[in-house]
Design a protein that fits this description.
alpha+beta, Beta-galactosidase, Chain A, domain 5, Glycosyltransferase, 2 domains, 9-stranded antiparallel beta sheet, elongated, hydrolase activity, hydrolyzing O-glycosyl compounds, Gal_mutarotase_sf_dom, Glucoamylase (Glucan-1,4-alpha-glucosidase), GH15 family
């Protein structure tokens, strides 16, 4: 069903396969407008990746329609007057896209597209059905345009190369990066006529408007003459356009395949194989693979169709975002050129917690295994002169290469906690042995990283903005040492267990002295960080912070019945921190990490989740978690039903959609509500 009011979003849906070579492919669908581009109303396939979730293979895949009599070309993103995006189901993430067009003579066209990733082959498959509402159908041509991005940085963009070729009876265009490591092949088939050739093809250079290297976009869309100036290839930052002549047919169906490979032959084989198989066969295999995977998990714990749908979509999203190496990227989007397609160890820990709660044990094992591989095991000094052995970098590419490098304690204590939680949930004593050295190295760093006054040294806060004694980071360090003590007890290392336990107790004894500030911005409450190096409009050592509620759950350091947490919860009712219209808590008052760069009315669903657990357990609001699960979170979703990072003052999607931390929190609050207690508390001593 088409909608009249589109919520501005970054990415409304993501799609991958749960197993096989298709699990190496991830694609997104974006229904416009975005948070910054208000003029568009179409929906578009964007940013497919393959083999590494942090490196794009293309920026987008456009479909365009040419009307010969009207001499008009319309594009799905720029010219659709309405659109819709939805999943096939909460368990099967086949994406259904509908775009509606209006031509100059007021006639219309509806383009319906079904999108999936092959269950067994590294390929993206799109079935397009177009129908024209004209009394006498004009002559039309459909164009497919792929904007290449087969490079890990813009500096490498000019090294791409693409050429026209044939493979197994199909016309194809195949492109590769400068290092000949990544290949993308485009092919199409019209089943009703069995046409496998292109009606025109062009390989151009992006942002080139004229001349022999003009882009396929300029040739097809901007020149608007219904003709493609054929060529056989190009080198540089390429785009690819191919045509399919529909004549005066009132409707038509065709299938487009984008195959990926580590060689040209592999990419071509991937594209042609799925076209030979046909969309229906690929869909059946895709659905079977996803249903089989969901059956391997515990399933929704609540007997409510709406909640179950949201729970399953969230779990499906986590699985889509998990790279076959084990890590889950934070999100498949890039606001203001700041990509989230990286792996944050802290986010990974929360995703492990959610996976374990949902019974996705193998996914949790794989994620923890990746954390062990990514740990710093050598004597390496960072920019602040801190020896980082035993820690993790701030975030990583999916292959384990470091990206940002600042020290955060939740990304040290957190992995130890994840190790402990996996052991607790599985009851598998082999888990203790498997990752013991990893946790031991991390705990040894924490023991040494003391400020000499019974507290950990300074570090970056969880929002990656402030260097100081952060409330959440300190709590995570304490939780890590307590978790290590339990692991060491099981291992028989009683001396090390006692050292960790005593150190955690000392830090916990000083926790409120550092992190709770009387007479602060909204009264007496926990703050972002004590002794911060950075000063904002509201200083981090004055403002309340939603991360304080993480210090309660899961870190189990701030006591829910304490006056300190109670007064922080009271401050969370203030309209400078929470949005009454959205019923959603912000990170902190006057937060300017927004699309405009200025403070806005709105909140973060994940922040509200942590606060609601504290409200529920304190008795401040007995229905807080139930309201989150059954009502509030359901109103904060994208067109396809995924939770974003931020919502606006009315509770609509604002920015950074499909944030996996947000999906994880819905799973965790649903599980906690069903169990009658918060899931996954760290040890309390």
């Amino acid at each position: 069903m088409l909608t009249e009011d589109h919520l501005p979003s970054d990415k409304d849906a993501i799609v991958s396969a749960p197993s096989g070579d298709g699990s190496y492919v991830l694609a997104t669908v974006n229904q416009y407008p975005s948070s910054t581009d208000a003029g568009w109303q179409g929906a578009l396939i964007e940013e497919p990746t393959a083999f590494r979730s942090d490196v794009l293979q293309a920026t987008d895949l456009h479909t365009l329609l040419w009307d010969a009599e009207l001499e008009q070309t319309l594009d799905v993103r720029n010219d659709a007057v309405d659109s819709d995006v939805e999943y096939e189901s909460s368990r099967v993430p086949e994406v259904h896209i509908r775009n509606r067009f209006e031509f100059a003579d007021d006639s219309t066209a509806d383009l319906e597209q079904d999108v999936l990733v092959s269950a067994e082959t590294a390929a993206l498959l799109v079935r397009s059905d177009v129908s024209f509402d004209q009394s006498e159908t004009n002559s039309h041509t459909a164009y497919t345009l792929l904007n290449s991005a087969i490079h890990s940085s813009e500096a490498d963009a000019d090294g791409e190369e693409a050429s026209v070729t044939t493979a197994d009876g199909y016309d194809c265009v195949v492109a590769h990066d400068a290092d000949n490591e990544r290949y993308v092949a485009l092919a199409q088939r019209r089943p009703e006529t069995d046409q496998t050739g292109f009606d025109g093809r062009r390989v151009g250079l992006v942002d080139t408007d004229e001349g022999p290297d003009k882009s396929a976009w300029a040739d097809i869309y901007e020149e608007n003459d219904g003709q493609i100036d054929d060529n056989d290839g190009n080198e540089g930052h390429v785009d690819v356009g191919v045509g399919l002549f529909l004549d005066d047919d009132a409707s038509a169906t065709w299938v487009t395949a984008v195959g990926f490979g580590r060689s040209e032959a592999d990419a071509l084989e991937a594209a042609t194989t799925v076209l030979d198989n046909g969309y229906e066969a690929e869909r059946d295999a895709f659905a079977d693979a996803w249903e089989t995977w969901h059956e391997s998990t515990a399933g929704s714990p609540l007997d409510d169709d709406t909640v179950t749908g949201m729970y399953e979509r969230s779990l499906t999203s986590l699985k889509c975002a998990q790279d076959p190496r084990g890590p889950m990227i934070a999100g498949a989007f890039a606001p203001n050129e700041q990509g989230y397609r990286y792996v944050w160890p802290r986010d990974q820990v929360i995703l492990v917690q959610a996976a374990l709660a949902a019974g996705a044990t193998e996914e949790a094992r794989a994620a923890l295994g990746w954390l062990e591989e990514a740990q710093i095991t050598d004597d390496v000094t960072d920019d602040r002169g801190i020896d980082r052995k035993g820690t993790w970098w701030q975030n990583y590419r999916t292959d384990g290469e470091a990206h940002w490098t600042v020290l955060q304690l939740d990304q040290i204590g957190g992995p130890i906690y994840a190790h402990w939680l996996l052991w607790q949930e599985t009851g598998d004593d082999d888990v203790v042995d498997a990752h013991y050295e990893m946790s031991e190295r991390a705990a040894e760093f924490l023991l040494a990283y003391d400020n000499g006054a019974g507290f950990p040294g300074k570090h970056q806060d969880p929002w990656e903005e402030v260097w100081g004694y952060s409330t959440e980071g300190v709590a995570a360090g304490i939780a890590g040492l307590r978790s290590m003590a339990a692991l060491a007890d099981e291992k028989g290392d009683e001396e090390f267990a006692e050292e960790c336990r005593e150190h955690a107790a000392t830090w916990a004894g000083n926790f409120d002295d550092y992190c709770f500030h009387p007479d602060a911005y909204l009264g007496d409450h926990y703050v972002t960080a004590d002794s911060p190096e950075r000063d904002d409009d509201v200083s981090p050592n004055e403002r309340p912070d939603a991360a304080a509620f993480v210090a309660y759950w899961p870190w189990n350091v701030a006591a829910v019945d304490s006056d300190e947490l109670g007064s922080t919860l009271a401050a969370a009712e203030d309209e400078s921190w929470t949005s009454p219209g959205a019923r959603c808590l912000a990170r902190y008052p006057e937060d300017d990490y927004t699309p405009t760069g200025d403070p806005e009315d709105g909140g973060w669903p994940l922040c509200e989740a942590y606060a609601d657990v504290a409200r529920w357990q304190r008795g401040h609001d007995d229905d807080a978690v139930a309201d989150y699960v059954f009502e509030h979170a359901l109103a904060w979703t994208t067109a396809a039903g995924l939770l974003p990072e931020q919502v606006d003052g009315e509770g609509d999607v604002r920015w950074n959609s499909n944030l996996q931390w947000s999906q994880a929190m819905y799973i965790l609050l649903t599980e906690s509500h069903a169990r009658g207690e918060p899931y996954g508390f760290a040890p309390d001593e």
